[in-house]
Amino acid sequence: MNSCRIPIFTIRTLLAFCVYAANPFLDAQDDKAVSAKFRGTEWGDEIQQDEIPLTARVVTTRLAKMPWGAIFKIEFTDLESRAPQKREIRPDYFIVTDDRIVLLNEDDNESAVKKISALDKPPEFEPGDIYGITTGKFSHEDGLWKTTISLKGDLCVYDSSHPSGHFKKIIWKKGVGLVEYASGSGAHADGYRLKRQK
To answer: Which of 37, 74, 35, 33 is nearest to 55 (CA)?
Structure first.
């Protein structure tokens, strides 16, 4: 056997497995759903108090793994509070590469997952859909919306706001995933803030 073949084969094998280095802020060992308890508050015009307690179970599932990345679904289930109208939070789908977390924002996300997972490289990302980074800083403006993404220790903080009072804040933690999720509209007209429980 030619002694040069072993190192070349080994290098090719390592390259095949090292194309996608796992993103430290959103990753999974397998496709099993992982759930965590979140607690926080919600507010709105229909709620008499300024804010009332809100709890939820957040389920993170890896839907697909590609040589260049993965796709995750984050669902908010078992939402409970004393609000007269039960809150619903739509699931989010994220495309994850080794240096980005990007919101999948299609009319039919389930179909989009199938198409994107078949690609041999990541699709082009719109700046407004980037929700996480692994290095540096990121900022983007879309009309009056201003978005910044910054790294603070082992956290990646996505912060987006509008002068009208609309906002969205998401915090990712290395080795954990989503640890805070908040969204609001208007001047305290409606919104919620949820934080992962240890």
So the answer is: 37
Residue showing tokens 């397998």: 30
Pairwise CA distance, residues 105 & 6, whole Å:
45
What does the chain come to in residues? 198
Task: From 195, 193, 140, 191, select the one nearest 173 (Cα to Cα).
Answer: 195
What confidence tier does 19 reach under pLDDT thresholds 50, 70, 90?
Answer: low
195 bridge partner residues: 39, 180
- Return d(Cα 160, Cα 157) in angstroms, integer: 10
CA 104/CA 185 separation, integer angstroms: 21
Q: Looking at residue 188, what is its pLDDT? A: 77
Global pTM reads 0.88
Residues sharing a CB contact under 8 Å with residue 7, sequence separation 6 or more, in sequence order: none
Place of tokens 């996505």: 158
